[in-house]
Design goal:
This protein is an alpha/beta fold. The protein is built from twelve helices and 16 strands. The protein binds 2-succinylbenzoate and magnesium ion (MG).
């Protein structure tokens, strides 16, 4: 395929409720969408970089610049045999995984339409239904959190993840565990602790947590191995894993026993596929993480999660939990058993609501083959 046009677009979407993690709270999202065009077809993807460099070093603005100046010129008007070739094409550019993923994933979507197959089949996915969990932000009171857990357990979600930080951890988990003795429960600290907190973190061992996600620094692997040696609870790494090398290093060092795979954080579907295959071969449970995506990112997460390595329920949940109105049709829906039935139509399996996207757009630029000219709305 030959890309005739690449469009970058920023939309604004307000979450139904603020989402609080150890690094901050967010309600008004700025979301970067990438659209690639060829032979009358459009491939879409979402850049999962956040508004601020608090989760990783990328931001929506940095990703926009990387896409415009460095990544788009590598693909525009070039012959691309398969989306699978893009990591090699992007190799001269270091890091910036979320920017790369946005462009690569849009090409995957385009490719799946050209081949007239569902994206999940093109990726090698085999599941027709994926299991879902939810991630609950830090709440002002334990009662509010208990009510949320109750709502999500009643809705059928198969795993509940609680965001924690110092001062909102052991007692919070104790209360949730007391009220819900049997649910699959995990915690995510988003790097809020240090190795010197080991005695405190050991207090969480009594709650039979499925895992503890990213307790230590966002770019650390070694200290997590020191911590894992002293904990009963399995550590899961999120922020620290950007590629297969990181995942295999972490597993071999016993820095984690579970891997969170985020499509953006690892640079796109190709690398995500490699990591899940590695995890499947090693018997390491992997699961799909979320970045409070719009329906477009969510649909890509669903396609990704059909691969066999995604052994545990992901942070992939219904559109309605996040948005009054999503930008895909139908919206992502979850069964009463806490699963998503994977659409079997070619491409993403969800229609892109272009008119709605247009209404939400605050900035746009298109790069095409006729000139280096940029048109800005
Ligand atoms: O660490 O998994 C995380 C959201 C933003 C940034 C980081 C994380 C999260 C979540 C939300 O946990 C997952 C979701 O999209 O529901
Ligand atoms: Mg996380």
């Amino acid at each position: 395929m030959r890309l005739e046009q690449v469009t970058l677009r920023e939309i604004r979407m307000r979450l139904r409720a603020p989402f609080e993690t150890s690094f901050g709270s967010i309600q008004d999202r700025r979301i970067l969408l990438v659209e690639v065009c060829s032979e009358g077809l459009s491939g879409w993807a979402e850049c999962t970089a956040m508004e601020t460099p608090s989760f990783n070093s990328e931001t929506i603005d940095v990703a926009w610049l990387m896409l415009r100046e460095h990544l788009t010129p590598l693909v525009l008007d070039k012959d691309i045999a398969s989306a699978r070739d893009l990591p090699e094409v992007f190799k001269p550019i270091r890091g910036n995984e979320m920017a790369k993923a946005a462009l690569e994933n849009a090409v995957w979507h385009l490719d799946s339409q050209m081949r007239n197959v569902p994206l999940h089949r093109l990726l090698g996915g085999t599941l027709n239904e994926i299991s879902c969990g939810v991630s609950l932000g830090i709440q002002p009171t334990i009662d509010k959190l208990l009510a949320l857990v109750d709502r999500e357990v009643s809705a059928g979600y198969q795993r509940i993840k609680l965001k924690i930080k110092p001062g909102k951890d052991v007692e919070v988990v104790r209360e949730v565990r007391r009220r819900f003795p049997r649910i699959k429960l995990s915690v995510d600290a988003n790097s809020a602790y240090t190795l010197s907190d080991v005695d405190h973190l050991k207090k969480l061992d009594e709650f039979q947590l499925l895992m503890m996600e990213q307790p230590l620094d966002w770019d650390d692997i070694y200290e997590h191995s020191r911590l894992q040696a002293q904990l009963d609870t399995d550590i899961c790494l999120d922020e620290s894993i950007h590629n297969l090398r990181h995942a295999s290093a972490a597993v071999e060092m016993d820095a984690c026993r579970v891997v969170n795979i985020k499509l953006g954080r690892v640079g796109g579907h190709t690398e995500a596929g490699r990591i899940q295959a590695y995890c499947a071969a090693r018997g390491i449970p992997a699961w799909c993480g979320g970045m409070i995506e719009s329906g477009i990112g969510r649909a890509h997460n669903i396609a990704m999660s059909t691969q066999a390595g995604f052994a545990w329920p992901g942070d992939v949940s219904a559109s309605q939990r996040y948005w009054e109105e999503d930008i895909i049709e139908p919206e992502v829906q979850v069964t009463p058993q806490g699963s998503i039935r994977v659409p079997q139509t070619p491409g993403l399996g969800y229609q892109i609501r272009e008119r709605r996207i247009e209404e939400l757009t605050v900035g746009r630029e298109s790069h095409d083959t006729r000139s280096a000219q940029v048109s800005v709305a």
